[in-house]
C-alpha cells in the first residue's frame, strides 16, 4: 500500500456539498404523516424545505455535508485538508464557512449571490437513532467546474468525492474535472457512494467510473454495494467491485466493516458505543478515520479500526462532526 505524498501540500482535498444540517427529534408517526421513508435521503425543493422546517420540532443547526464532515474528522485526526464547495452570500453560508475554517480546513470558493440560498438538510432523528434526511441542495448544485483549481487538486495526495453531489450537472462536471486533474498528477481518487437512493439514480455512471479505473478507493455500505451490483449476494458484490478498485471499504453497521485490498479481505468489529444517539455522519467519519490511517501508511486493519473509532464517536451525540479528540481516542486504542 503506497501513497504519493511528494510535493503534496494537503493530505485530502474534497469536492462536496456545503450544507447546514438542521436536526430535530421525531417519531415514526411524524415520518408516516409526512410520507418520509425512514432512514433515507430525499432531495426536496425550497417550498418543501420551508413546509417541513415549519412542521418539525425544535431543531439545532450544525454545519454538515458529507465530504465536509469527512474532512472535519480527518482534520481532527491531524490531516491537512481543503474543501471545494459552494455556499450563497447569506447567513447559513457564513455559518458554514466559519465552521469549516474553524476546523482547520482551507475553504476559498467565493460565495454566490443571495439566491439560491445555501443548502440545508432537514434531519429527523427517531428514538432508535435512525436519521431521515431531507436535503435542499440550494447553492451547492451550482458549484461550477471553474471553482476546481488545478494547482489545488495537484497539491492533494487524495481527492475525495461524494456521490450525493452527482445529482446536478455543474458539480458533476466539477468532479469529473477533478478526477482528470488528480489522475494527471498521479494522485489517488476516493469516492463514496453516499446513499442507496443515490446509487439507484446514478448506478450506470458510478459503475462506469469504477470500470474505467477512475476510482482508487471506494467507500460504500452493505446495501449500497449490493445495489450497485444489482445483487442480494453481499460476497458476490464485494468480489465484483474489489476486482476493479485498489481498495474497497464497506461498512456494515453493527457487524463492523471490511476492506478488500490486494486480493485479501480485512475486517474489524464495530467499536462499542454506550448509547447510539444519532447515526448522522457515521459513514462520513468512518471514511475520515480510514483515510487518515491510509495517509499514515498504516495497515488495513488499523485503517479500519481508526474508521470504526471515528464512527463510534460521532454516533454518540447529535450532529455529524466529531466532538471528542479523535487523536486521543486512536492513541488510547492503538498506541
Outline the biggest β-sheet: 9 strands, mixed
Name the strands of the widest sheet in spatial order. 6-5-1-9-10-11-12-13-14
* Multimerization state: single chain
Gyration radius from CA atoms, angstroms: 18 Å
* Helix share bin: 25-40%
Helix count from the secondary structure assignment: 12
Helix/strand/pairing category: alpha/beta
CATH architecture of one domain: 3-Layer(aba) Sandwich
CATH H-level superfamily of one domain: Ribokinase
Distance between the termini: 21 Å
**N-to-C SSE series?**
EEHEHEHEHEEEHEHEHEHHEEEHHH
CATH topology of one domain: UDP-N-acetylmuramoyl-L-alanine:D-glutamate ligase
Question: How would you summarize this macromolecular structure in one to three sentences?
Answer:
The protein has 335 residues and is of the alpha/beta class. The protein is 39% helix and 22% strand.
Structural features:
335 residues; alpha/beta; UDP-N-acetylmuramoyl-L-alanine:D-glutamate ligase; nine-stranded mixed sheet; five-stranded mixed sheet; 12 helices; 14 strands; 22% strand
Amino acid at each position: 500500500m503506497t501513497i504519493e505524498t511528494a510535493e503534496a501540500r494537503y493530505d485530502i482535498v474534497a469536492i462536496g456539498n456545503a450544507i447546514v444540517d438542521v436536526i430535530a427529534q421525531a417519531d415514526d408517526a411524524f415520518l408516516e404523516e409526512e410520507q418520509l421513508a425512514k432512514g433515507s435521503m430525499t432531495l426536496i425543493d425550497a417550498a418543501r424545505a420551508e413546509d417541513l422546517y415549519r412542521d418539525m420540532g425544535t431543531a439545532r443547526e450544525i454545519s454538515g455535508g458529507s465530504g465536509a464532515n469527512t474532512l472535519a474528522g480527518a482534520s481532527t485526526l491531524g490531516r491537512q485538508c481543503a474543501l471545494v464547495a459552494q455556499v450563497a452570500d447569506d447567513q447559513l453560508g457564513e455559518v458554514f464557512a466559519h465552521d469549516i475554517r474553524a476546523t482547520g480546513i482551507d475553504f476559498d470558493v467565493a460565495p454566490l449571490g443571495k439566491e439560491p440560498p445555501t443548502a440545508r438538510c432537514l434531519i429527523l432523528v427517531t428514538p432508535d437513532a435512525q436519521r431521515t434526511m431531507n436535503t435542499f441542495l440550494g447553492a451547492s448544485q451550482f458549484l461550477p467546474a471553474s471553482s476546481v483549481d488545478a494547482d489545488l487538486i495537484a497539491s492533494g495526495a487524495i481527492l475525495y468525492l461524494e456521490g450525493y453531489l452527482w445529482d446536478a450537472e455543474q458539480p458533476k462536471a466539477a468532479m469529473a474535472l477533478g478526477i482528470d486533474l488528480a489522475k494527471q498528477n498521479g494522485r489517488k481518487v476516493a469516492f463514496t457512494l453516499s446513499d442507496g437512493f443515490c446509487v439507484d439514480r446514478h448506478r450506470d455512471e458510478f459503475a462506469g467510473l469504477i470500470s474505467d479505473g477512475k476510482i482508487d478507493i471506494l467507500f460504500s455500505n452493505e446495501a449500497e454495494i449490493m445495489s450497485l451490483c444489482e445483487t442480494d449476494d453481499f460476497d458476490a458484490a464485494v468480489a465484483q467491485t474489489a476486482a476493479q478498485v485498489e481498495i474497497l471499504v464497506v461498512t456494515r453497521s453493527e457487524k463492523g466493516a471490511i476492506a478488500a485490498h490486494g486480493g485479501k479481505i480485512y475486517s474489524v468489529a464495530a467499536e462499542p458505543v454506550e448509547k447510539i444517539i444519532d447515526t448522522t455522519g457515521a459513514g462520513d467519519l468512518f471514511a475520515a478515520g480510514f483515510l487518515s490511517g491510509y495517509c499514515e501508511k498504516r495497515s488495513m486493519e488499523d485503517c479500519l479500526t481508526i474508521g470504526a473509532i471515528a464512527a463510534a464517536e460521532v454516533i454518540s451525540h447529535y450532529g455529524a462532526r466529531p466532538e471528542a479528540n479523535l487523536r486521543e481516542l486512536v492513541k488510547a486504542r492503538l498506541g
